Amino acid sequence: MYDFAYHKPGSIADAVKILTDDPEARPISGGQTLLPALKHRLAHPTALVDLSGIAELRGIQRDGDRLVIGAMTKHYEIQTSDVVKTAIPALAKMAGNLGDTQVRNRGTMGGSLSNNDPAADYPAAAMALNATFRTDRRSIPADEFFQGMFATALEPGELLVAIEFPIPTKAGYAKMRNPASRYVMAGVFVAKLADGSVRVAVNGAGPGVFRQEEMEAALAKSWSADAIAGIRQDPDGLNGDIHGSAEYRAHLVGVMAKRALAEAG
C-alpha cells in the first residue's frame, strides 16, 4: 500500500468537507473493493475517509410506500431485516446471496452501488425498482445514476446518503454465477410497481446494468413467462470472454428472466 491520511468523521457534513477540500481523498465504507485496490497498488488516494462512524448513513425504515435504506447499511442487515423481508422480499433474498459471510458482514449497499461493478447485484434491483438515490445535495433517479462500467452520476465530493425503493407488488431476481469465481455472468431483476408499470433490469451480462424494454412491454400486458418466451436478447455489446460468449450471456438473460418471474410469483 501507499501512505495515506486517515479520517473518521462523525457527520455527513464533516465527511463532505474533507472530500471537497481534498479531491484525491476517497470515502471508504465496507472496503470490499477499495482495500484490495490499495493492496495491489491500483489506487493511490491521499486520504481515506472512513464513513463507519456516521450514524446518519445507517438504518432501514419503511416510509409509506417506500423502503429507505441508509448507504452504510450492511448486506447482512438487509438480509435479516424484517422490514425488508415484508416490503421487498426479493431484496432481502438478494442480500443473502451476496459474496460470502465475511463480505455480507462488512460490505454495504451504498458502497456497492457507488462502485457500480458490472457484476454487482444491487444495481439490477435499484434499476428495476426505480429507486431514487439521495446524496448530500440532491436526489438522482436510478435511470440517471448508473453511467457505465464503474461510473455513476456522483460528482467529486458528493456522498450517497440513502436509497429509496418504491415498494412493488411483485419482484424477483435470478442470476447465473461463474462456477469458479462466483461472479455474476447474467442476472435479471423483474418488478411490477404499484402503478402497474413493469421494469426489467439486467446485470452481469454487459459492461453495466441495463433495462430490457422489450420484456418490460410484454410483461406489462401479461405477467408470465410465456409473454417473454419469444424475446431474444441482442448479444451486441454484451460481455464475452473465456467463461462465456456474448451469445451465451444473451441466452442467459432469457433464462434468468423466466426464473426471476417464477421467484416473483
Descriptive notes:
- Residues 1-170 form the FAD-binding PCMH-type domain.
- One of its GO terms (molecular function) is FAD binding.
- The chain is of the alpha+beta class and 265 residues long.
- The protein folds into three domains: 5-50, Uridine Diphospho-n-acetylenolpyruvylglucosamine Reductase, domain 2 (2-Layer Sandwich); 55-166, Uridine Diphospho-n-acetylenolpyruvylglucosamine Reductase, domain 3 (2-Layer Sandwich), CATH 3.30.465.10; 170-264, 2-Layer Sandwich (Enolase-like, domain 1), CATH 3.30.390.50.
- The chain is 33% helix and 22% strand.
- It is built from eleven helices and twelve strands.
- The protein has helices at residues 12-21, 34-39, 75-80, 82-87, 89-96, 101-106, 109-115, 122-128, 142-145, 213-221, 246-264, and strands at 5-7, 26-28, 47-50, 60-63, 66-70, 132-135, 139-141, 160-166, 170-177, 184-192, 198-203, 210-211.
- Strands 4-5-8-6-7 form a five-stranded antiparallel β-sheet. A four-stranded antiparallel β-sheet has the order 9-10-11-12, with helices on both faces.
- Helix 2 links the parallel strand 2 (26-28) and strand 3 (47-50).
- It is globular, with a radius of gyration of 18 Å.
